[in-house]
Amino acid sequence: MPSDTKASIIDSIFSAKLPPELFERFAQFIRQRCGIRIDQAKQAMLEGRLRKRMRALGLPTFEAYADYLFNRKNGDTREIIHFLDTVTTNKTDFFREAPHFDYLRRSLLPEFMAQRDRRRVSTFRIWSAGCSTGEEPYSLAMVLNEFAEQNPAFSYAILATDLCVRALATAKAGIYDIDQLDDVSPEYRLKYFTAARTPDRRQLRVVPALREHVVFKRFNFITPVFPIRQPLQAIFCRNVMIYFDRPTREQLISRFIDTLAPGGCLFTGHSESLAGFLTGLTPVAAAVYRKPPH
Ligand SMILES: C[S@@+](CC[C@H](N)C(=O)[O-])C[C@H]1O[C@@H](n2cnc3c(N)ncnc32)[C@H](O)[C@@H]1O
């Protein structure tokens, strides 16, 4: 594309306005496709993120982008994946909400070992549901690996899923800037990270032994069937449900409960209390809910 045409498209994108009816259409589409609520207060955020996408595609107006997204004849159905990537918020950290990892270490894992033979379950299965760029499942992997070293009969499997393809690519690569590891102890840094073979010397990579323990998959919570074959001992679904409306949250919680093994725990974000939801789960620690053992 000639550079003056490109410059004029960029100018149009900057001055483009998102008409209210188109905002509504986008918001409704997002809600249907992934349960995320976008209200008026988030219009500026949506506009900003879509402008980036329009720039990547060379589309000068929101109307042109809507046509590309919705019109199957001109458009590309793969655009829906990019569009949903654009609207997700992927903020996360290693060992975010640290008391959850302490609860796992001190309560859930020792109890699992004590009851393992009686329950005839050999592997501790855990799901990082809404894993974003991988910091949560790798934090879990570090804790579980430490426990496995102290308990040779212990084995574990981690499933990590997210809707966002871009976030999952980062998660799978397991490469992080050194300043993202502030909440990883020096001992764990030394043991579980190695210099990344990237031009940026400030990047570290999760060691293969840990990466191999995490299976990453794209999964949309709106999908009716969960990708789970065996009951889970724990589900971490933290800082995800805040973006959903109440019916979507209720549905999701009830399906999580079906997926948990008796005595298994659901961990939610600390600002996502299940108070007011009829769950049948017992709160056992801050934002930790346990399914009855029988
Ligand atoms: C704020 S991040 C939370 C990451 C991590 N659980 C934590 O607490 O640090 C929320 C994640 O939920 C994902 N998400 C949002 N809607 C989703 C959906 N319908 N299905 C699957 N994942 C979704 C987003 O892509 C995003 O990566």
Describe this structure in words.
This protein is an alpha/beta fold. It has 2 domains: 3-87, Chemotaxis receptor methyltransferase CheR, N-terminal domain (Chemotaxis Receptor Methyltransferase Cher, domain 1); 99-290, Rossmann fold, CATH 3.40.50. The chain has 11 helices and 10 strands. The strands form 2 sheets. A 7-stranded mixed sheet has the order 6-2-1-7-8-10-9. Strands 3-5-4 form a 3-stranded antiparallel sheet. It is globular, with a radius of gyration of 21 Å. The model has no long low-confidence stretch (mean pLDDT 93). S-adenosylmethionine binds at residues 34-36, 88-92, 96, 130, 132, 136, 162-164, 167, 219-222, 238-240, 243, 269.
Can you summarize this structure?
The protein has helices spanning 3-15, 20-34, 43-57, 62-70, 79-87, 99-119, 135-150, 165-173, 186-192, 208-211, 246-259; strands at 123-129, 155-162, 175-177, 193-195, 203-206, 214-218, 232-237, 260-268, 282-285, 288-290. The protein is an alpha/beta fold and 294 residues long.
